Backbone:
DNA sequence: ACAAAAGTGTTCGAGATACACCCATGC
DNA sequence: GCATGGGTGTATCTCGAACACTTTTGT
């Protein structure tokens, strides 16, 4: 990975990827940020992002860049928008393609930028409530990604990706409430979720809580795929 | 506008825009194609597209390029996806940003590539049924745009953009049927459309038909904007 | 026994679907 | 008078919204 500065002086046009990775932990929605270790915006917080190389597709670039800057491996991301304002990068014309993902935080906490680059000093899960002002136009990029998942979750049950493998309905509901930023009715929420028929009820309960333990559920990928197919085909 | 060939030999990375412009005429859904006049894919049909210049935003580039290649002026387009496979262009790495629009065909038939470029020999409205195999990966780009509008129309009443200013409900229904590729029930369709409350019934009827003339309607932009706002705000 | 969260049903209104006949007009 | 599309209403179902109390468990 060449340092950005060595490329900028001669570039005509460069493209980059920026990743918006959502995680959910301790009842909070978080986003993965890096602390920049190079100019411009040295010491600022930014979305993990870097230049696309000559011989890699955008999707591959996204995966590689996220890994190198944060240590997260094999994350599948979706492209959501491309940002191309002329002056979005102070050193030249950089068009950036935005990717997002929602991932399970448990067991993914060991973040460590790969030592191949000193571009990021560290990577940190940051609660949305504590979001600092970000480098470049990353505030705008983040906002667009957040709008996207908020929109998507309201017509597609995608929130499981953020939860541990086994979860309670109340945890799932809290997650929805955080993303949609409103209270939901418990009975209606449960009815609706169970109606989707994509949850498997386990013979197991929550442990270590000082109140009535809730049933645990698992997300059923097979049934989910079926539902998703149905939603993609128009008309019934 | 420099010719593509003079740029390619030395480029590291280049971005372009490709435009998917939908029109509706004589009961058929059409897309605007150009006939290429330069290599590669000389003489092939392609989506109108060209390189983004150094000092213009993506949105501006899209508008300019469409105008230069087809003569269509001031068309507002939405970005829908960015295509970055390594080998999508035979002469080097070109990442392209897809834009789409739906426009009124009546009065927009005078297509003429601007003489500043000999890149396109001509621009032609092509019925979807007659789509030839397109240059580059434009088949894929087209398909993605079409999926996008098909999806969008089923939750947002956007089809007016394709119709003449005054239209009958039957024309509107036909348009929906063509895009969704299925028959709709006349009574239910009318009920639903009128319920949106974004159509203004005119004191005017169809002329020159050899059967009972239908009422003409106009699309009410003010009310539409209101509806759109409502749909964008989550939760009620 | 008390605190805390789990779990559970019914009613209402809105909107989607299915379905068939008479009406106006031009030829 | 006939062919062609214009125009209309009702019954049913599904889904989302509103709404409150009992049960279980750990301390």
Residues:
């Amino acid at each position: 990975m060449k340092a950005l500065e060595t490329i900028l002086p001669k570039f005509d046009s460069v493209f980059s990827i920026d990743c918006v990775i959502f995680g959910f932990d301790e009842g909070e929605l978080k986003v993965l940020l890096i602390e920049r270790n190079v100019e411009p915006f040295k010491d600022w917080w930014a979305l993990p992002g870097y230049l696309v190389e000559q011989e890699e597709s955008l999707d591959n670039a996204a995966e590689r860049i996220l890994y190198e800057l944060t240590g997260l491996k094999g994350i599948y991301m979706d492209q959501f928008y491309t940002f191309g304002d002329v002056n979005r990068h102070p050193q030249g014309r950089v068009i950036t393609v935005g990717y997002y993902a929602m991932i399970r935080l448990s067991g993914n906490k060991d973040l460590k930028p790969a030592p191949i680059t000193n571009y990021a000093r560290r990577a940190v899960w940051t609660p949305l409530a504590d979001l600092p002002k970000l480098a470049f136009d990353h505030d705008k990029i983040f906002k667009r990604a957040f709008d996207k998942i908020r929109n998507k979750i309201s017509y597609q049950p995608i929130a499981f990706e953020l939860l541990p493998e086994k979860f309670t309905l109340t945890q799932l509901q809290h997650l929805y409430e955080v993303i949609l930023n409103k209270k939901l009715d418990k009975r209606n929420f449960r009815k609706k979720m169970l109606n989707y028929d994509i949850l498997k009820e386990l013979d197991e309960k929550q442990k270590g809580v000082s109140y009535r333990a809730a049933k645990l559920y698992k997300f059923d990928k097979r049934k989910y795929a079926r539902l998703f197919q149905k939603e993609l085909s128009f008309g019934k």
Q: What stands out?
A: DSSP finds six helices and ten strands in chain A. Chain A touches chain B through 29 residues (CB under 8 Å). Chain A has two domains: 14-153, 166-232.
